[in-house]
Amino acid sequence: MNKRNKYDYKFRLQCVEAVIKDNCSIRTVAQKKGVNITNLRLWYRFYERYGKDGLKERKYQFYTPSFKLMVLQSIEKEFLSLRGACARFNIPSESTIIKWKKVYEIEGVAGLNSKPKGRPAKMSNSIKPIAKKAQKPLTREEELLKENEYLRAENDLLKKLQALVQADKKRKP
If 0-12 CB within 10 Å is exposed, 13-18 middle and 19+ buried, where does residue 33 land? Predict the structure, then answer.
């Protein structure tokens, strides 16, 4: 599996200028320079639309949910290709738009909002311990009823356990 090549600004500019100044086809320049033809086409479109700044490497770009939605809607309405949308909206990679599309189909507009990266710093304070009820002293009758309920539950549990043991013994010869 080949490692993804990152080309520096000067190299990209040389390739695009070779297409423009030498009046060569994109395919010819791509073969001469050993570059993927789709990359060179994208660089050429960025250069046409944004000039030399279009070829500069962008580290991290923040996109608003409204911008993401606008890109997806214009792809739908104008039948833009992913590559064409990248060139038009100055988005460096087609995979970015593909991710937006998947999230939009699953979660809708709410999915286009940016999500915080990494794990939360600390556990939130929204989880509060359950406050114990202030207990008033029980009467003798209430204590006996509570104890009676506990003993019944314990008795039922023991009966179920004995039934399971008996069933297990019947299975084994």
Answer: middle
Residue ranges of domains in the chain:
7-57
CA separation for the pair 122, 117 (Å, rounded): 14
Of the pLDDT bands very low, low, confident and very high (cuts 50, 70, 90), residue 2 is very low
Q: Would you place residue 1 in the very low, low, confident or very high pLDDT band (cuts 50, 70, 90)?
A: very low
pTM of the model: 0.48
Residue-wise pLDDT tens digits, 100-119: 999 999 888 888 887 777 77
Q: Are 55 and 13 in contact (CB under 8 A)?
A: yes
CA 11, 13, 19, 23 torsion-angle sign: negative
Rg (CA), the chain: 34
Residue ranges with strand state E in the chain? none
Tokens of 150: 């506990």
The closest alpha carbon to 69, from 105, 109, 115, belongs to 109
CB 13 within 8 A of CB 43: no
Residue 68 makes CB contacts below 8 A (sequence gap 6+) with 100, 104, 112
Phi, psi of 5 (to 5 degrees): -85, 135
